[in-house]
Structures are given as C-alpha cells and as structure tokens.
Amino acid sequence: MEVPEKSSALSPERLSREKRDDSIEYMSRGKLIWRRFWRHRLARLGLPVLFALYMMAIFSDFIAPYRPYTRLKGFKDAPPSVIHFGVGENRFQPYVYARKRSFHPKTFREIYTEEEDKKYPIHFFVRGETYEILGLFKLDLHLFGVDEGANITLFGTDSVSRDLFSRTVIGALVSLFVGLGGVAISFIFGCLIGGISGYVGGILDEVIQRIIDLLIAIPTLPLWMVLSAAIPREWPVAHTYFAITIVLSIVGWTGLARVVRGKLLSLRDLDFVVASRLAGGSDLYIITRHLLPNFASHLIVTLTLAIPGMILGETALSFIGIGMQEPGVSWGVLLQDTMNFGALVHQPWKLIPGVFIIVTILMFNFVGDGLRDAADPYSL
Fold first, then answer.
1. CA-based R_g, the chain, Å
2. How many helices (H) and strands (E) does the chain have?
3. What angle do CA 15, 17, 21 make, to 5 degrees?
C-alpha cells in the first residue's frame, strides 16, 4: 500500500497565519514615541518651522542685506519695498524700482513713490557689508541685494532709517537662543534641586520646599524688572545677553523642581532603587541613572513648553526698556517702536517682529502638544 507524500505547499490557514506574524513590527519605546509624534499634524508643522527659524537666526548675517545699525539715508519710516517680476534675457528676474521721497502738504508725513524709469534687479549671493561669523571669520557675502544707488527693504524701515528686515532676522539670534539658554539653566537647577529634595527628604526637603514657596510667592515680572535694572548699561551686548539669561532662569526652575520631587517620592522606594542602593550606588548615581530616566518623556515635554515662556520674558523686558538695549537687537527691542500708537497706525509694518514672536510661540506649543501625546505612557 502506497503512502501518499506530504504536500510541500502550505495550507491557506497556515499561510495566512505566517503573513500576520510577518506583519508585526517590534519597535523600541523611542521609535514608538517618534512615530506617534509624527502622526500629530500640528507637531509635524511646528518642527520644520522651528528648524527654519533657528537656521535663519544662525545664518542671519548672511540672510540680512544690511547690518542692523546701517542707516539708509533719506528713508525714514519707509514702507516695505514692492518686489516686481519680469522676464529678461530668457530668465525670471525680480527687481525693485527706485523710490522718491516727498511730503504730504497737510500732515508733512513722508510719502514714497516709485520711479518706474529706474529699475534695479535683485541679485543673489552679492558682496556687501562685512560681518563676523562666531567672532572668528570676516565675510561680506549676503544672500541678496541690489546695485548701489537703490535699496531693498522687505519689511520697511524704522524711525532712524534702518532696514527692519535685517534687524528682525539678526534679532532672532538673541530672542530665540535666550530661551534655550534660560531653559537649560532652569532645567539643570530644577532636576538637581528637585531630585535632592524628593530623594533625600526629611529636613532638607522641608527647607528646599519653603525656599521654593518663597520664590513662587514673589511676582515674576517685578522680580525680573528689579534684577534686570541691576545690569550695568555700559556692558557689551554679549554680557547683557548672558545676564538676561541668568535673570530669566532664577525663578524658572521652581515649577520643574516640584514636579521632579513628586516623581521621585513615588519612585524612591521601588525595588530597583533599593537594589541599586544595596549594590553601593551613590545617591547622585541613583537619581541620574535610575530615577530621572523613568520620567524623561515628561521632562522633555516640560522643557519644550518652557522655552516660549523664556522668549516672552526677554521680549517683555526689552519692550519696557530694561532688557536688551541699543545697539543690541532683539524682537523685544524692535517692538519698542510700537509704543507710539499714532506712529503705529501709519507704519503698521513695525509690528512684523511681533508676528515672528507669535509664530514661534505657536510652533513651540504645537511641538510640545505632540510630544506630550506621544510620550504619554498610558496611550502607548
């Protein structure tokens, strides 16, 4: 009797089961968080916009056609230049017209009209005013510019004939990075002091918490004003920038310290912490290697959402005149021209730096919301 040979073909049920097994993708926690973050539409918008803003700030001297203190003689409170496009020599060439200044016969306000018989093409990668990169290299290459005899003011000019576009782009360097510096200092203080308070406990915990209560009870804006007023006005711009970063960080760490303390109180008596302590691990080692990584996702979200507060703090201090000062440039300094409501009605382009602030804050909030949803351990 012949025994039938076993078929080498897989049954439909087994084939379907193996296909289902192959479709399973095993991902690490970090990869899972990234995938969930990238599915957040607003966060997906905010991340590239923030990247573009920081790249603009880093290469601001190259992007700006003029230096922030360069005055365009005869163009006080001039409106933004109108960019025209035309086809010439088989290429698409942007250009601007020369502008002529006159005065209104009744209000005596400046009026700028285009002289259509004087056309100036916009060139890219042109030579212009010299600037320094990181204080080491001197360059004179700019992204765009026009020939001598004309000017291009994409955002108009201010009350002393300086190009607002150049000042906005260069001012982003201070406004954007003062947030990073302030948050970095606050993050270190908050994690360290909050970690010691929650892990050690006892009298030290009580002392630290009462100090935090005292700092929280002090109104933030008056405290910033007092500390900023103590900064000598003759200091260089770089020193003033560093001092403002310290000022913004003095009370910025208290909220994070309380969060870290609460997390450590709930984790310090767990088995893996006791095992590390019995193995001879120091308190600092246990805090930094075992406890803090357990809620690192929460710390990242807190860090992201704290940066807008620092940016707004610098803007507020500079706007009321006790933060960055001339010749320093920041978005808060540029908004000082908007204090005059009458001038603002006639020169609305001076609000453009405020638009950059709003966009930056929104993008940080979008990214923070995406990180919070992606790193939520109860939704992973």
1. 29
2. 15, 4
3. 115
